[in-house]
Design a protein that fits this description.
Length: 351
């Protein structure tokens, strides 16, 4: 009965020894790529990749069992009636399982290749999932055409109306999907980058954690998870504070009392900033006079950092160490002065 629906000869020809060996070689290529090119990955990434390989090997062992079972049934099918009946179904299961192993192996190779270019933070799974989906659809249509003997053209034509209805129902989901693809193609940011997203009066700041089919997930300063739809991301103004080679510029203000040694104060603040490990030595921190009044002189210290997420902790170190260093050099900080004017005269109160 199976011969009525399945082209058994075409299926049996495909389940030869050569495709099985080629699939095993493809898994070996993925393993060799991992061993030779991803040795510098973090331990967490190594565990993740090894888990992928363990899952892949379990599927390949199951495929090997099905393949050997099919070979046995096919060779003894003419002598055993029951074997002749179930052989096409075992062959079909073996073919489907082989496609699963092929898709998983190809997906793992693509994942490792993309990870090679972003070994520090990892890669978004969106592109890998899209590749797996497209490959699965191609293999499914190929199997329907060659094994079941169905014409794909008329089948796709009759499903056009259903596709339109499904597209309208999934309009938002598809919009987020294609927006996510465009974000990945443009590569304006990657996983691990610190972003500032502005849309109207809404402003969101966080570090990119993942890009999925529907949304982009960020981690905020307080480790809160922020989920933004990809369509929102595509239409917003995005500032990336994690460029590859450009440091992040930050500045802090100190006010010293008028009449103090300004040059000494600038040197003290520059030495303090240069002594903090998170601050770049090149370009070196530098201080300058940005404003002055009859009561105080405003000094601004400019410094360069690599981690946008550490800016507040670094700023706190500069403040506390800078104040202590100025005091140790007998440089007085400015005090707030409030002028109180009355009808009989003016007086000055110092707080």
């Amino acid at each position: 009965m199976a011969e009525k629906f399945i082209k058994t000869q075409a299926l049996y020809d495909f389940l030869g020894l050569e495709p099985f060996i080629l699939l095993g070689c493809l898994i070996a290529v993925a393993w060799i790529f991992y061993k030779f090119f991803l040795g510098e990955a973090t331990e967490e990434r190594h565990r993740s990749i090894r888990n992928h390989f363990r899952t892949l090997m379990r599927h390949f062992m199951a495929l090997s069992f099905l393949f050997v079972f099919f070979i046995f049934l096919n060779s003894s099918g003419s002598q055993i009636t029951e074997a002749h009946r179930i052989t096409p179904y075992i062959a079909l299961i073996t073919y489907i399982w082989g496609n699963v192993v092929f898709v998983k192996t190809s997906r793992l190779i693509v994942l490792q290749y993309l990870f090679l270019g972003s070994m520090k933070h990892g890669v978004p799974l969106l592109l890998v999932n899209i590749f797996s989906l497209i490959l699965s659809i191609v293999l499914t249509f190929w199997g329907i055409s060659h094994i079941f003997g169905l014409e794909i053209g008329p089948l796709m034509a009759t499903s056009a109306a259903a596709s339109v209805i499904l597209g309208l129902a999934l309009q938002d989901t598809l919009g987020n999907l294609f927006a996510g693809i465009s974000l990945q193609v443009d590569r304006n940011f990657e996983i691990g980058d610190w972003l500032e997203i502005v849309s109207g009066i809404q402003k969101t700041v966080g570090q990119v954690r993942e890009i999925t089919w529907r949304s982009t997930t960020l981690v905020g300063f307080s480790d809160e998870l922020i989920t933004l739809p990809n369509r929102f991301m595509a239409n917003a103004q995005i500032s990336n504070f994690s460029p590859p080679e450009n440091p992040i510029v930050r500045r802090l203000i100190f006010r010293i009392a008028y009449g103090e040694n300004v040059e000494l104060a600038k040197q003290v603040l520059e030495r303090v900033a240069a002594g903090i490990g998170e601050i770049r030595g090149i370009p070196a921190p530098w201080a300058y006079v940005s404003d002055t009044t009859e009561n105080w002189v405003e000094l601004k210290i400019i410094y360069f950092i690599d981690s946008y997420g550490s800016q507040f902790a670094i700023g706190d170190k500069i403040f506390t160490r800078g104040i202590d260093a100025l005091k140790s050099h007998n440089i007085k900080l400015a005090r707030q002065v409030i002028d109180i004017s009355g009808t009989r005269g003016a007086s000055t109160q110092e707080t």
